[in-house]
Amino acid sequence: MKAENEQRTGLLYGFGAYGMWGLVPLFWPLLKPSGAIEILAHRMVWSLAVVGVALLALRRWGWIAELVRQPRKLGLTALAACVISVNWGLYIWAVNNGQVVEASLGYFINPLVTIALGVLVLGERLRRAQWAAVGIGFAAVAVLAVGYGRPPWISLVLAFSFATYGLIKKKLNMGGLESLTAETALLFPPALAYLVWLGVRGESTFASQGLGHSALLASTGLVTALPLICFGAAAIRVPLSTLGLLQYLAPVFQFGLGVLYFHEAMPPERWAGFALVWVALVILTWEALRTSRRNRARLEAAAPAAAATAAPPAATAAAREPA
């Protein structure tokens, strides 16, 4: 019963995390007339404030000294910070420039890019269904390039940057809160310097657009940290396969907002490209679920045999006990 309650709680956290990520296109336009780079700088500065308060409450500081003593790990953290900056900045720019649909495509194709990086960088082997999904994904990008009259560069940069970020995080093997703190701490000095420079030039919108606008810019820290906290709470409560399915909620919401709320154009060739991406994701999901079920069945089949193997020594030991 307790396990079921934990899993139900994890699902709620997962829906909360991906729901917030899916609805975030509604937030960034509220920050106009701030430009994408100014919003990004505020996001870096205020995110550090939020995660700093969280760490202060949890009293989790020991990892900082350990990180500083490892130059390679610190270098990977700096690289992760740079990559996620590109991802965050481009996403904000895309949303505020009427490219929500193309931005959502980036997160639809992200699992396919992650698989491709696994093959190219980590030397992983793919099963037939995974190869088929990746091939269909490449075909989808080609169709969309024809439809847009150019490669869907926003989608590709978002997908590759986030997949690269995930690869670096895998190498780092740090907790979500700790890694976000380290990354934002490294980004804080240049971000703050940029905001000060804007203020000196009289181009900052933080103080010139009223208290409401200032509060919205400050809330970028919460917008960044809250979904990550919910995601972390979900990750320890639900199976990885369930979490993998939940990840599609965010781009689905983003796509829906782009078409239904922002009324972005969707000509037939663009629908065709998205349809191919969705076919690839269905194949990928089916293959992941089938593999998960197969592995679980093997474990269940092996459990009685392992118990039977362990039983004779125990029985022998019991027989030798004095009556």
From TrEMBL:
Keyword Transport applies: yes
Subcellular location: Cell membrane
Domain of life: Bacteria
Keyword field: Cell membrane, Membrane, Transmembrane, Transmembrane helix, Transport
InterPro entries assigned: EamA_dom, EmrE-like, RarD
Major subcellular location class: membrane
Topological relation to the membrane, as annotated: Multi-pass membrane protein
Record carries keyword Membrane: yes
SUPFAM superfamilies linked: Multidrug resistance efflux transporter EmrE
Pfam families assigned to the protein according to its UniProt record, in alphabetical order: EamA
Residue ranges of domain EamA in the record: 9-144
Transmembrane segments: 12-31, 43-62, 74-93, 105-122, 129-146, 152-168, 180-200, 212-236, 248-265, 271-289
Similarity section: Belongs to the EamA transporter family.
NCBIfam families registered for this protein in UniProt: rarD
The protein's name: Protein RarD
